[in-house]
Amino acid sequence: MVFDANLSEAPTQAWFDAVWWQAQGRIQNVGGGRGGVAFLDTPAGACVLRHYRRGGWMAPLMGDRYLWNGRARSRGFAEFSLLAELGLQGLPVPAPVAARYRRRGPYYTADLITRAIVDASTLAQAVRDGQLDSALAQRIGELVARFHVVGVDHADLNAHNILIGDGQLWLIDFDRGEIRATGTAWKLANLARLKRSLLKVGACNHDEAALDREVWVPLMRGYERVLGNAG
After folding, report:
1. Contact between residue 169 and residue 140 where contact means Cβ atoms under 8 Å apart
2. Which of 87, 109, 175, 226 is the most exposed place for a label (fewest CB within 10 A)?
3. Exposed, middle or buried: residue 60 (CB in 10 Å: 0-12, 13-18, 19+)?
4. Per-position DSSP letters for 183-207, written without gaps between them
5. What is the pTM of this model?
6. Is the separation of the CB atoms in 87 and 168 below 8 Å?
7. Domains of the chain, CATH where assigned
8. Catalytic annotation, residues
9. CB of 49 within 8 A of CB of 99?
């Protein structure tokens, strides 16, 4: 287990057990995601517990198991370290609280606890509520560009992993994310994935031409402005 050394109380293994929190009456909600996330009331404040679980064609075969490839490369530890680094750079990400792995032979399972971003909703929800306009699109482009400027490759940039609340934007879920020194293909892939996600959740009534005109043009305007200023 690894955890934030500044916590007033060191986490225990029980912290990674949603059933334990439920027995304490300190679980707020259970949300989506492949493995599901639990919103907790912990001694460290409001937190989110996520159990890593595979998606896609590997899900029926492996479930929540991953092939062991070293402590630092375990899913929870890798994301914990990346979030800590991004937080030090002042980027809007959830603060990591604790992570663990449990090794069983050649496989392991993993969990991560982060601080909750309170009173925030997803960009997907904003789309459903009709709140995605050109101004918000431009801010989203600026957000993505801030991460790209420092080489952050988000492996699953989609409308569910951008949070909006109290006038601010955050990026969440950095599983398999990494910091790259060079390259542009991965940046274009991130943007393409976000665009597909916006269409999928119903932006501009799934009309790609309207999305390009009403959302993507201002989004890229904000994106390019931040990249230009950084250069």
Report:
1. yes
2. 87
3. exposed
4. -SHHHHHHHHHHHHHHHHTTGGGG-
5. 0.93
6. no
7. 2-115 (3.30.200.20), 121-230 (1.10.510.10)
8. 156
9. no
Cα–chain-centroid distance for residue 121? 13
Q: Would you put residue 109 in left (φ > 0), alpha (ψ -120 to 50) or beta?
A: beta
The token duo for 172 is 């969440």
- H or E stretch at 27: strand 27-31
Q: Do the Cβ atoms of 57 and 63 come closer than 8 Å?
A: no
- How far is Cα 230 from Cα 55, in angstroms, rounded to an integer? 36
- Give the burial string for 117-151 (b: 16+ CB within 10 Å, else e): beebebbbebbeeeebeeebbbbbbbbbbbbbeee
Question: What is the Cα–Cα distance from 161 to 103, expressed in whole angstroms?
Answer: 28
Place of tokens 């709140």: 131
For the record, the structure tokens of 17 come out as 């057990």
Name the stretches of the chain with pLDDT < 70. Answer: 29-35, 231
Best CA proximity match to 18, nearest among 35, 38, 42, 41: 38
